[in-house]
Amino acid sequence: MLALRSGLRKVLAPWALAPQVCSSFATGRRQTEGTFYEFCTYYLKPSKMKEFMKNFKKNVHLRTAHSELVGYWSVELGGRINRVFHIWKYDNFAHRTAVFKALASDPEWHERFLIPNLASIDKQESEIVYLVPWCKMGTPPKEGVYELATFLMKPGGPALWGDPFERAITAHAKQGYTELIGVFHTEYGKLNRVHVLWWCENADSRAAGRHRSHEDPRVVAAVRESVNYLDIQQNMLLIPESFSPLK
Fold it and tell me: What are the CA-CA distances from residue 171 to residues 164, 179, 226 (Å)?
């Protein structure tokens, strides 16, 4: 036994004397801002869609008094219809907690919106996202429609697929085929998911821009690199409501 221990010391000695190097797995730009966005999706009963929207439009000020509404849309194409999709902005998690605490104690919000509309909602989904470090929120040049493209990337996070994905999105945006509004990375929800919000004048201009991008070698090359890290992709066409800040 003593001989064995002596032999192990000799074998392990070089490793024990070698300097220990610690490195981070994250190699890309990191999230540094506390500001985040909440993506909310309400699945509405078909017979209640019009009633729900009328009530929300009438009472939206009760909700926006507590936190910033970025955009509010109805889903026109892509998956289940009779859906509304909205984005809310928060300074940090403490801010969101304070907002919901204030709403819970707001009798006017309960009486005029929450209680009348609960029967209209079939299901709700919430997702917390950050803007990726290389993107800032854009502003549409005029009223139009929106495409929310969602990419489920391979496990590994932005350290694995961040740079190729950025090149693919930037290639699209630089050529002006459509207007980039924001790129968001999921913090709570289905992980390794990235959402890209685009603006276009209408659905036909969006289709025309997509066809032109498919023939652009710069875009094709960037996308070809990025798809190596892609598992699933889906999208939906969004129509902004009259009270939506993003139109």
Answer: 11, 12, 11
Write out the H or E segment, with its range, that includes residue 109. Answer: helix 107-109
Is the distance from CB of 238 to CB of 85 less than 8 angstroms?
yes
- Give me the residue label for tokens 């024990």: 16
Mean pLDDT per block of 10 residues along the chain (247 residues) reads 42 37 42 86 94 92 95 94 96 96 93 89 95 92 96 86 88 84 95 94 90 84 84 94 95
CB-based contact 122:182 (threshold 8 Å): no
Integer angstrom CA distances of residue 36 from 120, 129, 137: 28, 6, 12
Q: What is the pTM of this model?
A: 0.83
* Cα 63 from Cα 20, distance rounded (Å): 54
